[in-house]
Write a structure and sequence with these properties.
The protein is of the alpha+beta class and 240 residues long. It is built from ten helices and four strands, in the order E-H-H-E-H-E-H-H-E-H-H-H-H-H. It has three domains: 2-76 and 137-190, Gyrase A, domain 2 (2-Layer Sandwich); 92-131; 195-240, no CATH class.
């Protein structure tokens, strides 16, 4: 996998501060202080003015399908309709060893052989491509604004994310924190960013924040009864 930064909005901190001051003319803080306030309090719409464009190579088609779940982004992928795929590269999932890895590699060879034979029989790429595996390497151009990137990192830096996706997220994160540390240095998975992990019982034993960051279920149990009383009071006193 290879991730490169193609383009990023310049002077983004100042741009975000200008946008924030347009919304609230009473803001007199410096640009860095405004960005810190926005990140700390999740007033994140102004962050949408900063864009990153990444060149991502050597990821699987399976991963590219997961990326499409992040809809507030611009996606462009290598086309198997217009590109020849004989001798294609592919992703090997972590943990495959011994016989399991042999079976996997045999499946990749079989798919490549079938694709090659179809092409030699004169079958068009757009028809032959249906024998290609989800592990097939693809090339991707991805553009996301900072607000969407924060959401992406909160979900995909979690240890529960698929290994390939988490590797991509870490590589993208390193680029983002290098370009705009004032924004991204306070961002990681949802548990770190929010100060409470919403994964609850699904949080795995290898979570690096286990014992440091509480799970949502525990906090809810502690305040739920009193919080419900407050909500009931709000509903009774509401004029709407």
């Amino acid at each position: 996998m290879e991730v490169k930064l193609l383009r990023v909005t310049e002077s983004g901190v100042e741009l975000v501060a200008t946008a924030a001051k347009t919304s609230d003319s009473a803001l007199t803080r410096s640009a860095n202080e405004i960005v810190e306030l926005i990140v700390d309090n999740d007033y994140s719409s102004a962050l949408e003015h900063i864009y990153f464009t990444f060149d991502v190579a050597g990821i699987s088609v399976a991963l590219s399908r997961e990326l499409l779940e992040h809809r507030i982004a611009s996606h462009t992928a290598r086309s198997t309709r217009y590109n020849e795929e004989q001798g294609f590269g592919f992703y090997v999932p972590e943990g495959l060893k011994g016989d399991a890895k042999s079976v996997f590699l045999e499946a990749m060879k079989s798919a490549n052989d079938a694709y090659t034979r179809l092409r030699k029989l004169g079958i068009a790429r757009e028809q032959a491509r249906y024998v290609l595996p989800m592990a097939l390497h693809t090339h991707y151009i991805l553009t996301m604004n900072v607000r969407s990137l924060i959401n992406f990192f909160m979900l995909r830096l979690c240890v529960r994310a698929s290994p390939e996706m988490r590797e991509l997220a870490i590589r993208m994160y390193k680029i983002c924190v290098r370009e705009y540390p004032a924004i991204f240095s306070k961002i990681w998975c949802r548990g770190y960013t929010l100060g409470v992990c919403p994964e609850n019982r699904a949080r795995p034993p290898n979570c690096p924040f286990a014992g440091i960051i509480p799970v949502k279920r525990t906090l809810r149990r502690d305040f739920d009864k009193e919080a419900k009383r407050v909500i009931e009071h709000e509903l009774k006193t509401s004029n709407h």
